[in-house]
């Protein structure tokens, strides 16, 4: 969408010339901002959306005395925004002050507590500050204004600010907040604006207001799921047992036996022995004892948690988790589903947020929002889900030559639940091996779940050197991917919707082909059912599409997009599942790529590879 009403704008852009797609995008964003409107942008990899969005928003913000926030789901995605701002600052003398802010736990320089996890960390910090026992805090409190070196460190990224602060004996988080007060551009995490508790405290601390701010949401396709995850929690009998052990360790008189007893009573009453192992729980089913005197009980649990942490040097506390859960249980409404389930020998009570209304409402208070992603189609769905039906929208084509990619379909196999047999898995394994035999170079294979990945792997006759495993920690994943990127003729097996299929750049054409096995649809369960019903009511029978079909297909699209990251990159994408030929899936995916149905796809891939 090009906005013809926007006059020529002298955009602040860090390079000599913007690409034509960037120019269009800057005009589109500027045009929306000029009308005080938000904008939804679908821009595939290569359009240069970080540069274009920052330049357009900053140009408008400087002219109209507004602030800009650039928000990402992960800390690791801040770096590119820092680079753009660094470039702009060195090219123009536009008085822009920016700061890269991450959560307090990642900025804590106090070795006494900075390895603590979750609530235990926040409570410990609060106590240390209150009792004036954190020297780092005291030193930063006394500092009226961070000096030039700290200011420069803040603009080099949060890691630099952390080390500079540590060397100077000041709290990096407090310094970043002081710098943010002076800044007109803040790079931060989704949680800073999507978690309603954090948002209010954060904005107050940095003395900024939403109404005077433009918010850029990077990777915006996942906003409502991420916001919902902040508002969801659960309590298991295992956690209660761990918390009881913590109480024993500090010789506390608190007895949590009643919680286990109430949970098992709920499960006995609601979960049918021959059913799916889970059941909805209504407000009236919840025993009064679970929600009586909540504040008093939670205070006692938190005190005990702190005693446990201080006495045992533990890094986390289940007592803290139980306090959080009980608070949520005493205040949930009909935008949550409460579900009791049996797992192994345990019982779990979960509170799942079906739609994060509060977080979404707060977005509307901003001057305007720029929602952007490489997979923000259908735009109409995202606009409706976030309640911005009157926003502007724009979608840009893939900026690379079309002939650099072929998308093919193998409709002889499927990972549909009813088709999951050893024969089917063997057939998929043989087909992957046949494709790899024709390809000299790395091929990444993405599966809908670890279960399917492992089932296919068992039948592979060919060596698979790189395999993502469910229990891998992020450092192990990083190490594996580093080795994969350095290799040149291997298979990678990973899951869709994971850290190897989204938000990761396989640059320099290190992947020659991608095989998408199955559709990563969520396993039907009560939570999904509740979500579908809630969205059906809210958006007129679109629950199945919005909560189930589209999110599943989008994970496949994200994974399929990993191979082509630059103009010179060439790759084939093979979709292995007959359901990709069904119109309901095909119509969703056709916005992104045209899949050719060719039974002789092996020859097509061979020919395509020969031309490389
Ligand atoms: S005030 Fe800062 S340095 Fe001190 S404990 Fe809290 S986050 Fe850590």
Write structural notes for this entry.
This protein is of the alpha/beta class and 612 residues long. The chain folds into three domains: 23-229 and 357-395, P-loop containing nucleotide triphosphate hydrolases (Rossmann fold); 233-353, Fumarase C, Chain B, domain 1, CATH 1.10.275; 402-610, P-loop containing nucleotide triphosphate hydrolases (Rossmann fold), CATH 3.40.50. 47% of the residues lie in helices and 14% in strands. The strands form three sheets. It has a seven-stranded parallel beta sheet with strand order 3-4-2-5-10-1-11, with helices on both faces. The longest helix has 19 residues, at 294-312. Iron/sulfur cluster is lined by residues 104, 108-110, 113, 125, 128-129, 134, 136-137, 171, 173-174.
Protein topology:
Elements: H1 20-34, E1 39-42, H2 49-64, E2 67-72, H3 78-91, E3 98-100, H4 104-107, H5 118-130, H6 135-142, H7 148-156, H8 158-168, H9 172-182, E4 185-189, H10 191-194, H11 196-206, E5 213-217, H12 223-230, E6 233-236, H13 237-249, H14 257-270, E7 278-280, H15 288-291, H16 294-312, H17 318-329, E8 336-343, E9 346-353, H18 357-363, E10 368-373, H19 379-385, E11 392-395, E12 405-410, H20 422-438, E13 443-447, H21 450-458, E14 466-467, H22 474-486, E15 491-495, E16 513-517, H23 526-539, H24 543-560, E17 571-576, H25 583-589, E18 596-597, H26 601-610
Parallel strand pairs: 1-10, 1-11, 2-4, 2-5, 3-4, 5-10, 12-17, 12-18, 13-15, 13-16, 14-15, 16-17
Antiparallel strand pairs: 6-9, 7-8, 8-9
Bound molecules: iron/sulfur cluster.
């Amino acid at each position: 969408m090009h906005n013809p009403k926007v006059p020529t704008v002298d955009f602040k852009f860090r390079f000599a010339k913007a690409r034509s797609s960037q120019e269009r995008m800057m005009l589109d964003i500027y045009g929306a901002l000029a009308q005080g409107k938000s904008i939804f942008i679908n821009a595939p990899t290569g359009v240069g959306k970080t540069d274009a969005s920052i330049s357009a928003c900053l140009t408008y913000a400087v002219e109209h005395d507004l602030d800009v926030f650039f928000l990402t789901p992960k800390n690791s995605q801040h770096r590119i925004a820092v680079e753009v701002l660094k470039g702009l600052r060195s090219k123009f003398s536009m008085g822009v002050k920016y700061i890269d802010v991450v959560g307090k736990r990642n900025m804590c320089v106090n070795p006494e507590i900075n390895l603590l996890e979750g609530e235990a960390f926040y409570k410990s910090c609060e106590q240390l500050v209150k009792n004036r026992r954190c020297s780092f805090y005291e030193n930063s409190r006394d500092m009226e204004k961070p000096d030039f070196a700290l200011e420069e460190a803040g603009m080099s990224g949060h890691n630099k600010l952390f080390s500079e602060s540590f060397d100077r004996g000041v709290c990096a988080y407090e310094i970043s907040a002081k710098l943010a007060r002076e800044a007109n551009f803040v790079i931060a995490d989704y949680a800073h604006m999507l978690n309603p508790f954090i948002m209010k405290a954060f904005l107050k601390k940095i003395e900024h207001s939403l109404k005077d701010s433009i918010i850029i949401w990077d990777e915006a396709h996942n906003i409502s799921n991420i916001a919902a995850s902040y508002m969801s929690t659960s309590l298991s009998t295992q956690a209660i047992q761990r918390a009881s052990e913590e109480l024993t360790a500090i010789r506390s008189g608190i007895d949590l036996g009643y919680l286990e007893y109430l949970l098992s009573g709920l499960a006995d009453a609601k979960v049918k022995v021959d059913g799916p192992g889970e059941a909805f729980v209504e407000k009236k089913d919840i025993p009064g004892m679970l929600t009586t005197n909540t504040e008093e009980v939670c205070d006692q649990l938190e005190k005990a948690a702190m005693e446990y942490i201080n006495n045992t040097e533990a890094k986390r506390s289940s007592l803290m988790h139980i306090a959080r859960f009980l608070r949520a249980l005493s205040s949930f409404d009909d935008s949550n589903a409460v579900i009791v389930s049996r797992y192994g020998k345990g019982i779990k009570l979960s509170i799942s947020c079906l739609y994060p209304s509060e977080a979404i409402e707060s977005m509307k208070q901003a001057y305007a929002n720029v929602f952007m992603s490489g997979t923000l189609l259908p735009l109409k769905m995202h606009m409706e889900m976030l309640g911005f039906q009157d926003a502007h929208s724009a979608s840009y084509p893939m900026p690379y030559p079309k002939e650099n990619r072929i998308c093919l379909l193998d409709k002889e196999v499927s990972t549909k639940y009813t088709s999951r047999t050893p024969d089917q898995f063997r057939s998929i394994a043989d087909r992957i091996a046949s494709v790899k035999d024709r390809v000299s170079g790395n091929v990444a294979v993405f599966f809908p779940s670890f279960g399917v990945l492992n089932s296919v792997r068992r039948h592979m006759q060919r060596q698979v050197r790189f395999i993502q495993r469910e229990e891998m920690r992020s450092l192990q994943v990083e190490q594996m991917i580093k080795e994969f990127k350095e290799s040149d003729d291997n298979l990678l097996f990973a899951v869709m919707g994971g850290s190897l299929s989204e938000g990761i750049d396989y640059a320099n054409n290190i992947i020659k082909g991608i095989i998408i096995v199955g559709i990563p649809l969520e396993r039907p369960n009560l939570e999904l059912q509740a979500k579908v019903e809630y969205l059906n009511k809210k958006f007129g029978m679109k629950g199945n599409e919005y909560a189930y079909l589209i999110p599943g297909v989008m994970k496949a699209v994200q994974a399929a997009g990993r191979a082509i990251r630059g103009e010179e990159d060439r790759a084939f994408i093979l979709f292995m599942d007959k359901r990709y030929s069904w119109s309901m899936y095909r119509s969703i995916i056709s916005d992104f790529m045209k899949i050719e149905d060719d039974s002789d796809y092996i020859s097509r891939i061979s020919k395509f590879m020969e031309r490389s």
